[in-house]
Amino acid sequence: MGNVDEISSLNQREKLIGFFYVLILFVLTSVICSFVLFFTDTGLLTASGKEEALEQMARIRNFEKKQASWMDKINSVDERISKIDPSLNASYEKREINFILGEIRKEYVQNKWDERYHIFEHVAQFYELRMFDKERLWTTQKNIEKFSADLERCRNSLEKKKIDLMK
């Protein structure tokens, strides 16, 4: 029966060692978690994140204000281009439109570091192309009218020659 006493004492001893092992792991884990939760300065990280978010919001508000302040000029350019008559040689009107478009483009050039301001460059290019297209369309229509008139004159002349030849 000495064997049974040795086995039970070993089991008791193993249980005691296992208990202390688990106890040490529990205390060590508790100390590490407490240190992380209570003694690290997480407020510094969140404060800098908040400051960055506030700065970004301020930049967005500034961009929105600039965008709103330019809307009157952009609407003015839109109206002027809609009203412009390419048949009239109103170079002063075209110069005025180009001047305003240059001011709009300048807003982008001054703030190239911020991608949002690229919209000002796009708007200026859009209206320049719109004005160019309007002039080109007018020129094309005038050429078509001229060619149609030439064709009609040619047909009339051909008909007249046919009649003259038949006589």
Structural descriptors:
mainly alpha; single chain; 167 residues; 4 helices; 0% strand; elongated; 89% helix
What does this structure look like?
It is a single chain. The chain has 4 helices and no strands. With 167 residues, the chain is mainly alpha-helical. It has a domain at 72-166. Helix 2 packs antiparallel against helix 3 (91-110) and helix 3 (91-110) runs antiparallel to helix 4.
Topology:
Elements: H1 2-39, H2 42-83, H3 91-110, H4 118-166
| CA radius of gyration | 42 Å
Number of helices, where a helix is a run of at least 4 consecutive DSSP H or I residues? 4
Query: How many strand units?
Result: 0
Structural class: mainly alpha
- Describe the largest sheet: none
Summarize model confidence as the mean pLDDT: 85
Helix content: over 70%
The low-confidence parts are: none
- Global morphology: elongated
Strand percentage lies at: under 5%
Query: Element order, helices and strands?
Result: HHHH
**Termini separation (Å)?**
151 Å
Short structural summary:
The protein is an all-alpha fold. The protein contains four helices and no strands. The mean pLDDT is 85.
